[in-house]
Write a structure and sequence with these properties.
Radius of gyration: 32 Å
Shape: elongated
Largest sheet: 10 strands, mixed
CATH topology of the largest domain: D-Maltodextrin-Binding Protein, domain 2
CATH superfamily of the largest domain: Periplasmic binding protein-like II
CATH architecture of the largest domain: 3-Layer(aba) Sandwich
Structural class: alpha/beta
CATH class of the largest domain: Alpha Beta
Order of helices and strands: HHHEEHEHHEHEEEEHEHEHEEH
């Protein structure tokens, strides 16, 4: 039981107190006796006594008065006790940090994310992820999917949460969620009574959508053209959260992704499925010829767990 605790110091450490010496000293000061310190440390009393003598010899200071088998701390011991306690706290922090590195990795993680996926997915999990990785520096960059593909190719981000509609030969994808577009309208709107809404129902209705910078906007316009229905644009924005606010303050209705609507928490508006269905897939983009760092793997795993718990109907599950 005492072998490791009593092991000899390497020759190059001569003249420097070891952590074991400080632990023995601190235990005696805290417990009040060698026997109590030995029980606390799980070693024998002779082992503690030897370490105390070695500690005194290394420091060149008498730390205890010894009389009739009893140790009484000297004033020097009381003064030194505070610094030894701080030093041992520092050693414990190093041990905890080493364990955290072993379990979670350490460093910097650079991630791209579209505004919609941040609001609809990452916003709900990123705080917990950072709490689990206290030594990680996380950089989140917002942008559109085509911008993030460029960031990946330029090595400006390690991975990106984005639409999987836009692809590149050097970029691989990990599908995470599949959604469809919905029509968002005031609860008292005449179309709110319908269980679903078709493009023909919107022929005379002002529309609010994302700007044409988004591929989803082009797909919506294409759907209206195929249905032979005029596309009556009332307002457009590049912020998905703003769309619902515009529905409240205008006479229009919005066509948005169900993922955006699911995170809105609004009660004065309703959403109805849009037909023909516009299916959207979202997930992780990453360079095809590179693996993931440990923090990146853990962020993806955290995202999967979050989606499985909060959006089981949209989550595509683990790859088979």
């Amino acid at each position: 039981m005492d072998t490791m605790f009593e092991s000899q110091r390497p020759a190059e450490n001569k003249g420097q107190p070891t952590a074991r010496m400080m632990e023995a000293f601190h235990a005696v000061m805290d417990a009040g006796s060698v026997s109590a310190a030995a029980r606390h440390l799980g070693v024998t009393q002779p082992a503690v006594s030897r370490l105390l003598k070695q500690f005194e010899a290394e420091l060149g200071v008498s730390l205890f008065n010894r009389a009739k088998g009893k140790l009484t701390p000297t004033p020097e011991a009381h003064r030194l006790s505070v610094d030894v306690g701080r030093a041992l706290d520092g050693i414990e922090r190093v041990r905890r940090s080493a364990e955290d590195v072993r379990r979670h990795g350490v460093g910097r993680l650079r991630v791209g994310v579209t505004p919609m996926l941040y609001e609809g997915v990452l916003h709900g999990l990123i705080g917990g992820f950072l709490a689990d990785h206290p030594h990680l520096v996380l950089t989140l960059e917002n942008g559109l999917t085509d911008t993030m593909i460029d960031w990946l190719l330029r090595d400006q981000v390690e991975l990106a949460f984005a639409s999987l509609l836009d692809t590149h030969p050097g970029v691989d994808t990990i599908p995470l969620v599949e959604t469809q577009s919905v029509v968002v309208l005031p609860a008292n709107h005449r179309l709110a009574a319908k269980r679903s809404i078709r493009a023909e129902d919107l022929a005379e209705v002002p529309l609010i959508t994302m700007t044409r910078r988004y591929s989803s906007r082009h797909r919506i316009e294409q759907m209206f053209r195929r249905a032979g229905v005029p596309f009556r644009l009332r307002a457009e924005t590049n912020l998905s959260r703003t769309i619902c606010d515009l529905v409240r303050t205008s006479e229009g209705v919005a066509i948005i992704n169900a993922l955006t609507w699911g995170g809105s928490g609004l009660t004065d508006l309703v959403a109805r499925p849009l037909y023909p269905r516009l299916v959207n897939r979202y997930g992780v983009l990453h360079l095809a010829d590179r693996g993931f760092s440990r923090p990146a793997e853990q962020l993806i795993a955290t995202t999967r767990r979050y989606l499985a718990e909060t959006m089981p109907d949209l989550y595509l599950g683990e790859p088979s």
